[in-house]
Amino acid sequence: MKIAMIGAGYVGLVTGACFADFGHEVTCIDSDPARVAALTRGEIPIYEPGLEALIRKGEAAGRLRFTGDLAHGIAGAAAIFIAVGTPSRRGDGHADLSYIYAAARDLAPLLSGYTVIVDKSTVPVGTGDEVERIVREANPAADFAVVSNPEFLREGAAIADFTRPDRIVVGAPDERARAVMAEIYRPLTAAGAPIHFASRRSAELIKYAANAFLAMKVSFINEIADLAEAVGADVGDVARGIGADQRIGARYLNAGAGFGGSCLPKDTAALLRTAEEHGRALRLVAATREVNAGRRAAMVQKIADAAGGLDGRRIGVLGLSFAPNTDDLRDAPALGIIADLLAAGASVAAHDPAAMPAARILLPGVDLAADPYALADGADALVLVTEWADYRALDLGRLGAAMRHRVFVDLRNAHRGGEFAPHGFRYRSVGRPDEEIG
Q1: Residues 127, 128, 131, CA angle at the centre, nearest 5°?
Q2: What is the homologous superfamily of the domain 2-198 according to CATH?
Q3: Active site (catalytic) residues
Q4: pLDDT for 163-220, tens place per residue?
Q5: pTM of the model
Q6: CA distance 301 to 165
């Protein structure tokens, strides 16, 4: 099947590359000439494990192409996916849908034959209705359907999430559109992936509700971690104990520095805004955001307590991206923590396996180290903020020898205190009693 993908960003590239790998003929369209040129040269603008190889495989097979020409890109496509950004709108937290609606206006006059227009971007309830209205107004004779097909991709594990999904959600208005979507996803459903058909508005709400629930799990376990510290329990044991309950599940129960990234912060804000517009209060979602907002200050205080203050101290930060295996710094907890450390008079150095190019732009007042050992040079404390695998097998003797004071603050509970005690470290983590951490 011929598929067009409007938007060659994170979602568009992963989705397009995976569809091409299934055997579909995919054209990714982007309005940024520099991005199109880079992709055509084989340069991948984002860090996502396995994506570069998948894109090159699709190109070599002639099933994946890139263009800036919308008319050429969508010609003959049975389905046109819209995978453009929906960032938070300044001032009110609502999703900025201008890119979605611009894509709808641009593609409308170019439609020929029956076409399924698929909202792949995360959009508030009712967006599909407006896309349908825009297209119908611009091209009354067009034969088309608008479908919601939200993505559920974790940055750093996107290809696995796409190819082995928990579920595929399709909000389609009629059987004709459902048949097209069923054919697109047949390689996955034939392998056992469940497909859930719903109304378009239900599919739009499913995406926001899922992300809000995951955000609530993160904030919940962080509050439990604070209580665990106070009563002498281990939040890791608590998380394993409750996560074994199938009604709860183990994922997203890792205590730490709070949630960030391109999805949970903006999607919870947009969901609250949608609720307000419809006269409803989502108190749990509001509390989730409140808990997460306070997490940064709590983590900075933990660092200050471990380091014996911040003014004049040199703090090394391990990990900048909001999660491992991605270079995405959007709403990354590390950025807020670093800002507070600097404001408190500390000097800050940082390292990240993938996000250094972006960090050079966003963190002009921070020394960027070539590796964790250079980061440790003269440091009064090291703080693990993002749990990259690169930081799990550090040479602690070498690390400590470079430091001015041997203090390690583990905000992701990636280690145990017993690893550090033989090397003379003061080790602190999140939600664990002192006797458990050395």
Answers
A1: 90
A2: NAD(P)-binding Rossmann-like Domain (3.40.50.720)
A3: 263
A4: 999 999 999 999 999 999 999 999 999 999 999 999 999 999 999 999 999 999 999 9
A5: 0.93
A6: 39
